[in-house]
Amino acid sequence: MEEQTQNNDFENENILTFDDGKVIEPEQAPTLVDGPELVVQTHDLVKRYGNFLAVNYVNLQIERGAIYGFIGPNGAGKTTTMRILSTLLDQTSGDGWVCGYPVSNKSRSNLKAIRRSIGYMPDYFGIYDRMKSWEYLDFFASAFYVDTKKREALVRDLLALVDLGEKRNTYIEDLSRGMKQRLGLARTLVHDPQVLILDEPASGLDPRARVELRELLRELARMGKTILVSSHILTELAEMCTHIGIIERGTLLAQGRVSEIIRAMRHNIRQVRIQVALDNSKTLDEVGAIIQANPQIQKVEVSQQHQTEANQFVTFEVSMELSVEGAESDLNKFLKSLILQEVNIYGFVEREDNLEDIFMKVTKGLVA
Amino acid sequence: MAKKLAIVARPLTGLWGVFRSNPIIVKELRGRMRAWRGMYNLAFYTLSLSCFGMMVFVAIYSSRNYYGYYNYNTVPTNPNVVVRPISSSYSSYGSDVGNQLLLALIIAQLVLIIFLSPAFTVGAIASEKERQTYDILLTTLLRPRDIVLGKLFSSQAYLCLMIIAALPVLCIVFLLGGVSLSQMAIGLLVLILTTVLMGSISIYWSAASRTAGRAFRSVFFLMMLMFLAIPGLGVLIDSLVRNNAYTNAYYFNNGPPYIPPDWLQVYTNISWSFNPAVAMGLSYNYLSNRSSDLFFYQNSFYSNSGTRLNGVSLPMPWLTFSIIAVVLSILFIWLATRRVKPLNVTPNMVKGKRGKKAKFQPTPYPAEQPATQE
Prior knowledge:
heterodimer, A: six-stranded mixed β-sheet, B: 374 residues
């Protein structure tokens, strides 16, 4: 019993305490799907600016611990959605919930509860003049009423986390862009929020800074934070997101786990790259005819041809891109049929779709 | 006993706690007083005020030391003969200089403060918007009240420091004699209230405008209205009414001397008191030339034959100004807290010209339908 109490004490020390110490029970958000706990969700969220429909019935669902990539071209409604979730903008209709607190409820206690749950970083880095790195974090920690005694250690830890420990006493205006961005990220963490809402955090960063930021976000996800990160550059998100949501012209076109989306987007069509060696027995046209005779084949495209000479034999090598309809087992049958018809095949690779392909397929290019 | 004392002490410590725990105050004061700039500004202010005081003193002194009084109509023909004024309307030599110097210094400070207070305050919230830190600030747990009071307090604290630093310069007038402590006290009070009033107006426009430049323009126009237009209109109406009355009463009827109606006396008192410099000048004048109370004075008029006629008893202009300043300050601070809220930012693509309707944008999808999700 005593041991348990000590443990509790130890745990409590790690929890950030707030001066006013009010605890508000979250309202019950409607459960839209059965499954994992949703930390952030919106239900038919709409935002209009006059005649312009910025957000069109968006239903976001973000699981706990996910790194949710919010992808869309400029002006797609990403920032608007994020600002609504951050209580900076009123929605026209619909509702959103952050950790169970509805964003439509504008009572002071509810707003406080939401603001404690989120760490919001806008797509620009607002800096103050004549302010040192540690003062910046200290200011925001005090703005979240973090206990004065714990603030110094907190600032030190956060600076270490974002690898700015040595820049503690540097004026913010003297930091590089990447450092400022990391400092901004540390700023979102001062009150230990559950959800981070990061609007285009990697824009304008050089490749190294981008990699560092990505690692940092992964580290935060490992720490149990749910991260909603937006970008219009897919490669930024491709490697770190567990989930994505694709938005264009205010409409959420697809969302879910990256692998699920890839599967859904394929429409059962697989991209296969085969390499064939042509010898005297078969010409390219003959091979082409054999391949196209197969009903599963949707499209054939010769991508590369070259000849090699070795031991007085001249060999033509041809690479082809095929679109094959069917499941993986159908690919197997297709390969077998090629071998049975004595096609000299030495390469057969199914190409994985990446986010960029999905994005191009899903969006209609209406805005970009 | 301790409990009783605690009841008294708690509000005070609470007030101090509010200021001490307000992160904005700590941040702003740290930034403002960092390095030597704050000190240089302070030194420059005091030095320029001292120079001005010296100039005024020399001007007053040299204009009258030769003959000993103002009235050049009564300058004796022999300049070697110094004639002291005998009229009781002239007080003794030094006190007059002291009074005038004090008034000159306070008016100079008022002019400086009227421009410095907005300069220090107008950017407080608007610059957060320009620096794009406003949204970040609003997603913290700080209440609008904390932000407004914190920003206002930190800029006003520095200005009050300036006023206090200039206090020794003002106190030189005591060497000349004839200036009472109460005169000095009301001077300081009006100075501080003017600062707070200008600060409150500035913080309101700072919260209401998107840029500091726009906010400053608005403050400037309001300042012109309050300090020039309202008192000017008061003077105009007063003179129109009186002129009309004099014409009728004196020239045509040869009637009794005219005393303006009560409402006009009150209106004139209030409208003049909108300008702190005029209020101070009148207050000092009433205090030194008439045996007025510190808080009230008897409005009086003179008939053509020179008989004094009493009007209504009115609060001293400095008191009227103080009441106006306090009421307006509270009003503008309250309005400012209501203006501190997220900007409803319209995306650039639909932002029309200011005041015009946003350009029509076709809706992206034919009907506003919930998007079907796979």
